[in-house]
């Protein structure tokens, strides 16, 4: 089974924009770079439409924007065997780019399970915007904008709201907004007939923690949040009826006794629901937890150096066999094999060069 992947980057150095990779779980090397698409202005976070036909990218610049791309049918059905397509074609056709209108530095986007809306979180603008998806998969200007308010314990990093992501829950009824600036996870009920968000609750984390990203267990009512400022992950019981989150456990992302300057990035639940992973920027590692025995209380498995520096993001392939760490400061993506019986990561020695990688998403075909 071949999986097509797309990698977002910061474009202030040698990056072309969005890179295309092929992942073949049962081959060596498991990952190859096969092309690139010229996308300016820091396409730093990506999201794939649920039906696999389109890709969305935020532009993390002062005048925030989000772009839509059609994933070419040939790319989805005929992934080349070599390392690079002739001419470096990335297999994407640009549909449109719209201003988000939510202020500066949009840093995250996601797609509603219906495929009819895209959500964009603005770190500096302190807002979340909702963009209708057109019939051709292009985007409209925002139909709704919600503004965050408040501050946190850290006067340098938390003087104002900084929503770092906006992620729909499993059924799309609620949208969750970890706000690094206020130490809160905003819970918004989403009216998918009108495209409107209505805040229904707010879950607090420890003062100064700085929540960043959230992911949900595939079969159990639990969610997990990475917190950037205090190097922890927190587990929550998730009420699908009300959207509420109730904290059940908090665990450090660092080895016992380690006081390295560190900023957790992404967090992901393994497709099986047995393991939880988070990235450490500074310690430059992936931390693994066992959540199979008790999803309410992650149990540490180990820490695994990413083979580079500043793993801003990582991706898990659909088969659950592989983890790909995107090392932003060393311009590489490093492949690890996942031991399905223990959750441990095994270095493979396989890495590809991508300038300043910041996000990777995979599309199965």
Can you describe what's shown?
- The chain has a single domain, classed as Methylamine Dehydrogenase, Chain H.
- The strands form 7 sheets. Strands 3-2-1-28 form a 4-stranded antiparallel beta sheet, with no helix packed on it.
- The longest helix is centred in the N-terminal third of the chain and has 5 residues.
- It is mostly beta strands.
- β17 and β18 form a beta hairpin.
- The model has no long low-confidence stretch (mean pLDDT 95).
- It is built from 1 helix and 28 strands.
Draw up the topology in text.
Blueprint: E1 3-9, E2 17-23, E3 31-38, E4 43-48, E5 54-59, E6 65-71, H1 73-77, E7 92-99, E8 106-111, E9 117-122, E10 127-132, E11 144-147, E12 167-168, E13 174-179, E14 184-191, E15 196-204, E16 211-216, E17 222-227, E18 232-238, E19 245-252, E20 263-269, E21 275-281, E22 285-290, E23 299-305, E24 311-316, E25 322-327, E26 332-338, E27 345-353, E28 357-364
Antiparallel strand pairs: 1-2, 1-28, 2-3, 4-5, 5-6, 6-7, 8-9, 9-10, 10-11, 12-13, 13-14, 14-15, 16-17, 17-18, 18-19, 20-21, 21-22, 22-23, 24-25, 25-26, 26-27
């Amino acid at each position: 089974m071949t999986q097509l992947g797309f990698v977002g980057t910061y474009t202030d150095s040698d990056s072309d924009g969005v890179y295309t990779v092929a992942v073949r779980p049962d081959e060596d090397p498991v990952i190859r770079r096969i092309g690139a698409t010229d996308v300016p202005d820091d396409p730093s976070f990506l999201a794939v439409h649920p039906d696999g036909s389109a890709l969305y990218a935020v532009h993390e610049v002062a005048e925030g924007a989000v772009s839509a791309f059609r994933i070419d049918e040939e790319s989805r059905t005929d992934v080349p065997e070599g390392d690079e397509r002739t001419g470096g074609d990335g297999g994407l056709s640009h549909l449109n780019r719209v201003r988000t209108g939510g202020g500066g530095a949009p840093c995250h986007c996601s797609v509603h399970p219906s495929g009819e809306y895209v959500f964009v979180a603005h770190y500096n603008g302190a807002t979340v915007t909702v963009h209708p998806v057109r019939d051709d998969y292009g985007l409209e200007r925002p139909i709704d904008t919600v503004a965050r308010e408040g501050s946190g314990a850290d006067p340098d990093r938390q003087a104002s709201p900084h929503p770092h992501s906006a992620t729909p829950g499993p059924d799309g009824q609620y949208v969750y907004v970890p706000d690094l600036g206020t130490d809160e996870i905003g819970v918004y009920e989403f009216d998918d007939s009108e495209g409107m968000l209505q805040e229904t609750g707010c879950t607090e984390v420890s003062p100064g923690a700085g929540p960043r990203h959230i992911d949900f267990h595939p079969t159990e009512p639990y969610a997990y949040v990475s917190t950037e400022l205090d190097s922890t992950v927190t587990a929550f019981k998730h009420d699908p009826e009300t959207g509420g989150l109730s904290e059940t456990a908090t665990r450090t992302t660092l080895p016992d006794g380690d006081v390295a300057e560190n900023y957790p990035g992404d967090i992901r639940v393994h497709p099986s629901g047995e393991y939880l992973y988070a990235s450490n920027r500074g310690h430059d590692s992936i931390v693994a937890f066992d959540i199979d025995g008790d999803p309410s209380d992650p149990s540490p498995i180990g820490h695994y150096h990413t083979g580079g520096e500043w793993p801003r993001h990582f991706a898990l392939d659909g088969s659950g066999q592989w983890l790909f760490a995107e090392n932003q400061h060393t311009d590489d993506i490093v492949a690890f094999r996942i031991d399905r019986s223990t959750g441990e990561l095994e270095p493979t020695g396989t890495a590809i060069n991508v300038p300043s990688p910041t996000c990777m998403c995979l599309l199965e075909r």
